Amino acid sequence: MWDEAVTRYDFGPSHPMDPVRLALTMGLVRAFGLDRAMEVRAAPAAGDSTLRLVHREDYVAAVREVSGDPGAADGSYGLGTLDDPAFHGMHEASALIAGQSVAGAEALWSGDAEHAVNFAGGLHHAMPGGAAGFCVYNDASLAIARLLELGAERVAYVDVDVHHGDGVQAAFWDDPRVLTISMHEHPRTLFPQTGWPEETGGPAAEGSAVNIALPAGTGDEGWLRAFHGVVPELLADCRPQVLVTQHGADTHFEDPLAHLAVSLDAQRAVQESCHRLAHEYADGRWLALGGGGYAVVDVVPRSWTHLVAIAAHRPVDPESAVPASWRDEVYARTRQLAPARMTDGRTPSWRDWDAGYDPADRTDQAVLATRRAVFPLRGMLT
């Protein structure tokens, strides 16, 4: 899912969410010929009736108002803040990104496509009644809500962004049809200070919200161990009809806004795992979204190009050289030097959870806290 106009989602030159990351990602996708390996589609912006599947009518009206007059934003509804400054065309750009995710979900449900990618999406902090954390409309929640509207009875959402996927969790907190799993840096040390293991869903949906809160400094081995120690078993239990995943690249050790130490190679390994899990448990229906990521040259384009390549069944060898044409594009747009290869030079590995638990290991403590909080609620063994 791609429309050049998604780069108009632009909070300004001093904001860390620089839309150049989207343009550079699409440039790298094209440089590897991936735009010829899968269909590239543009969808219309989400209309008001679609936005109201998740967002309150008064909030959508407020976004529309400040979109035409950014000076009117006063912090109400989270608009006009440092995180979410108002800009001309805010409603149109935000609704366009949401429209791509919703259309991707519709294509999966109809059988028109097996996999869909919207790396401009994954704006997981937006709440039903407000903007938050660089997110205006919650495209992930809207895509899931559309699937439910179309008749889906089980949808799983897996979020590996460094920040807690709080907006998606909130949207489906009391809905047993949706399993939300978020693996993120511990809320003690990072925005939005939510996503504790004890957050397990509302009264009608206990065990439907899952949070893996990892200690700052967690690297490849711990991150992958945590993912594999929780996610596959839950998906096997849920058996979703569609798997929606969010792949924020801000877990990377170069990201300036967080404190995990994950490599590009580990991010790619989780992308491959999500692809495999979609085929294993969701009949291959996989909607993959972007998310955070603020190392906009060195990390984001490479990570999300790997994601597109995996979805296209044309994986890019991590040892591949970055095409010279793209490195030229990077320099022309940013005056920065681009990375030379599609790898950080790591070969990530992890110990399976079945291999044993180390009570002194902080990552193992985090995984066990999640399993103890959620698995019994679902009738699963910890």
The separation of the N and C termini measures 39 Å
> Helicity range of the residues?
25-40%
Largest sheet, in brief, is: 6 strands, parallel
Secondary structure: number of strands: 6
Q: What is the CA-atom radius of gyration, in angstroms?
A: 19 Å
* Morphology: globular
The mean pLDDT is: 98
Number of helices: 11
Low-confidence segments: none
Order of helices and strands: HHHHEHEHEEHEHEHHH
Derived from helix and strand composition plus strand pairing, the structural class reads alpha/beta
Order of strands across the main sheet: 1-6-5-2-3-4
Q: In percent terms, what proportion of residues is strand?
A: 5-15%
Mind explaining what this structure looks like?
With 382 residues, the chain is α/β, with parallel strands linked by helices. It is globular, with a radius of gyration of 19 Å. A six-stranded parallel sheet has the order 1-6-5-2-3-4, with helices on both faces. The chain is built from eleven helices and six strands. Helices cover 37% and strands 8% of the residues. α6 links the parallel β2 and β3.
Explain the layout of strands and helices.
Blueprint: H1 20-31, H2 48-51, H3 57-68, H4 90-110, E1 115-118, H5 139-150, E2 155-159, H6 166-171, E3 178-185, E4 209-214, H7 220-238, E5 242-246, H8 264-281, E6 286-289, H9 300-311, H10 324-334, H11 362-374
Parallel strand pairs: 1-6, 2-3, 2-5, 3-4, 5-6
Helix pairs in contact: 1-9, 1-10, 4-5, 7-8, 7-11, 8-9
